[in-house]
Structure formats: C-alpha cells, structure tokens
Amino acid sequence: MTSDTTQSEVAAEQTELLRDLISRAQVVLWDFDGPICRLFAVHRAEKVAQDLVEWLGFQGLHGLLTEGERDSLDPHAVLRALDRRRPGSDLLAELEERLTQQELRAAVSAMPTAWADPLIRTWTAVGARLAITTNNSPRVVEHYLAGRGLTACFAPHIYGRTQDLHLLKPDPHCLNRALRAMGCAPTSALMIGDTPSDYLAARAAGVPFLGYARDETKGHHLQQAGATTIVSSLETVLKALRAQA
User: Fold this and answer.
1) Which of 35, 43, 75, 244 fits a disulfide with 106 by CB distance 3.0 to 4.6 angstroms?
2) What is the pLDDT of residues 4-20, one digit of tens each?
3) Any residues with CB less than 8 A from the CB of 213 and at least 6 apart, and which?
4) CA nearest to 76, candidates 49, 37, 40
5) Torsional sign, CA 94, 95, 96, 99
6) Residues 6 or more apart from 179 whose CB is under 8 A from it?
C-alpha cells in the first residue's frame, strides 16, 4: 500500500465521519474564540494576561500567583489561579470584570474565522439550532454577533462564563446548560471546538465533537487529547453540509 493510497483512505474515512456527525446534529454547540472568530487577533491575549497580573500586583497581591502563573500567556489561566485561592471573593469578581472589559475591547478588532459566517447561516437555514458554549463572557459574544448580523442564529442560546469560575471548560457545565435549555439529548448534538478543553467538555457531556484546527499545532493538541475528527478549514464542513441539504 502506497503512502498516497493510505492518505486517500484516511481522507475518505474523515469525510465519512464528518458527514455522519453533520447528519445527526439537531443542535450545534459552538465554541466562540477560535471556531467563530479570533478574538485576540489584534488585542493580544498575552497582553491581557499581563495586564491582569499587573493589576493584582498593584493591589499588593503579587504573591497570590506562582511564578509560572505570573508568566502565563493565557488570561483564563490567571483567572483560574485566583479562583483556586480566593473563590467567591470580591477580588475575583473584579478581576473577572476586568477580563470582560478587555474581551469587549478585543471584540472590536476580532477576526472572523474563514467560512464561519456562511456555515452558521447555512446550518440555521437547513433547520439546525445553534448555541454558543464558551469560556468567554456572554456579553462579548453578544457584542460580536450583533456586529456580524448573526444574533438571530444563536439567541437566546449563549452560554458563557459565569461567576462560578470553577465551571469553565473542560467542565461540561455550559454544554449541559445548553442541552437542557434546548431540550436536546447529548447524542443529537455536535460540539465544534478548537482546544483540548472543548473536547474534554464535550466528552464529559456525551456530545459528539468536531475539532477545528487552524494550524498543525492546534491539530496536534486536539489529537493528543483524543479528538478523532478534525478539520483545518470550516469550508470542508460547509461543503459537506450543503451536499446533504
């Protein structure tokens, strides 16, 4: 068997898996930052994380974080670290609000993911119901969707970060909220995400998962987590959906 034959067989298998996922999905649960847009395309996540760490320092609380947490490039990692040490505190609520304000600022310059808008509109047009299940603030999601004219495709089913920060993905809390609100069995839904935490949340909720990986690194991380169906472009999903419509 040649390598070309092997690649063709793998591609055919992936296409069949994708078609099966699409055909079963009555409800599609979207992660936000990644599959729908690159939220921090211009207003960088690294700078946001640094600003959160510096703000804690200004409060005289620099020591609440480990050195590794202070050097984190992920704003959510900083938020989780404080949640572990000051759960339910006013300090944590204020840090979360500061992150929300930074996300709202980032939403102005967010870069739409290629093919996301037409895929969302097409899936809505063929009768699927859509929801967003994200670790970002729901206020940020609502702001972005309004700017793209996509609110009607999702509202009111936007399930984002709450004050219960221990319930961020990979906890399946936001997925379960969506499923309950939409009266959908997990096996009749589909989660689209781009991180291992998305995959783990979907697995915990019993929801089939479709990985979106815009580069090899993200694809590798999803594979390492256990994801089996991964696309590098949402155009692939759009074509498969149109073929079934």
Assistant:
1) 43
2) 556 666 667 778 889 99
3) 194, 219, 222, 230, 231, 232
4) 49
5) positive
6) 27, 185, 186, 189, 205, 207
What pLDDT, on the 0 to 100 scale, is given for residue 6? 65
79: which 2 tokens?
């938020």
Place of tokens 């490039």: 73
d(CA 33, CA 54): 24
Nearest-angstrom CA–CA distance, 1 and 84: 53
pTM beyond 0.90, yes or no: yes
**The total number of residues written for the chain in this structure:** 245
Q: What is the 3-state secondary structure (H, E, C) of the chain?
A: CCHHHHHHHHHHHHHHHHHHHHHHCCEEEECCECCCEECCCCCCHHHHHHHHHHHHHHCCCHHHCCHHHHCCCCHHHHHHHHHHHCCCCHHHHHHHHHHHHHHHHHHCCCEECCCHHHHHHHHHHCCCEEEEECCCCHHHHHHHHHHHCCHHHHCCCEECCCCCHHHCCCCCHHHHHHHHHHCCCHHHEEEEECCHHHHHHHHHHCCCEEEECCCHHHHHHHHHHCCCCEECCHHHHHHHHHHHC
